Amino acid sequence: MKKINPRIYLTVWTYLGWFGCVYLGKMNWGLASFIFPMVSWILLRLSFNLNRLMMLRLLVLFLIGLSFDSGAVFFNLVQINPPATIGWLPSWMISLWLLFIASLPLLQSLFQKKYFLAALFGAIFGPLSYRAGTQFESLNMNGTQALLIYALFWAIYTPLAMGLIGRKDITNENT
Questions:
Q1: CB-CB contact of 80 with 72 (8 Å)
Q2: Dihedral of CA 63/66/72/75: which sign?
Q3: Is the residue at 110 inside a domain?
Q4: Nearest C-alpha neighbor of 44 from the set 101, 121, 1, 119
Q5: What is the rounded CA–CA span in Å between residue 71 and residue 38?
Q6: Distance (Å, rounded) from C-alpha 148 to C-alpha 153?
Q7: pTM of the model
Q8: In sequence order, what are the residues at sequence separation of 6 or more whose Cβ sits closer than 8 angstroms to the Cβ of residue 150?
Q9: Which of 1, 30, 47, 159 is the most exposed place for a label (fewest CB within 10 A)?
Q10: In a domain, 162, yes or no
Q11: In the prediction, which pLDDT does 84 show?
């Protein structure tokens, strides 16, 4: 019997995790949302050999994402419902960033060196993810301006992330 690749579990878990983090945030159980990225990181470690340099780069990408979302809240591009308990961002949103960062090696293996495609993907699906959060009433985006700023951020962030983690010196696949 063929063993199922942990990447399949990581992919499915990432989508379930997004829904779970947003839903738990809406239900005021935001701290429970950390279970989703914890499992993702276990699956990530089973899927890829990550050295210290790769982990450092993932940490930098995580901090960039948190900084951007914190700035968006500070400058009132988005409002979080319920309000944040940790700094400017709620725990469920921090969980989402941890979850997303764990999925980056999967995205990198999909895009490889196709940076334009990564930018297009980021510009479309990054803001749509936040827009979907508005349907849960977990956050509100302040108009088209916020959507465009998020599209620009994701159009830059996604290929940057792909370039940083796509380096052969920092990751080897477990296959």
A1: no
A2: negative
A3: yes
A4: 101
A5: 25
A6: 9
A7: 0.88
A8: 72, 77, 126, 127, 130, 141
A9: 1
A10: yes
A11: 66
Question: Residue 163's CB: how many other CB atoms inside 10 A?
Answer: 15
Task: Give the N- to C-terminal CA distance of the chain in Å, as an integer.
Answer: 16
* 174 found inside a domain: no
Distances (CA, A) of 106 to 68, 121, 151: 22, 14, 21
Q: Count structural domains, the chain.
A: 1
Q: What is the pLDDT of residue 47?
A: 82
Query: What pLDDT score was predicted for residue 153?
Result: 98
Which three-class secondary structure state does DSSP give residue 93? helix
In 3-state terms, what secondary structure has residue 172? Answer: strand
As averages over each run of 10 residues, the pLDDT of the chain (175 residues) reads 71 90 90 94 86 93 96 92 74 94 88 91 94 88 94 97 74 46
**Is the bond preceding 159 in cis, omega lying within 30 degrees of 0?**
no
Residue 112: which domain range? 6-169
Query: Tokens 């696949």 — which residue?
Result: 173
- Residue appearing with tokens 């993932």: 58
Q: How high is the pLDDT of residue 151?
A: 98
For residues 116, 122, 125, 127, the Cα torsion angle rounded to the nearest 10 degrees is: -140
pLDDT of 2 reads 63
**Which residue bears the tokens 């985006």?**
141
Answer positive or negative: Cα dihedral of 161, 164, 170, 173.
positive
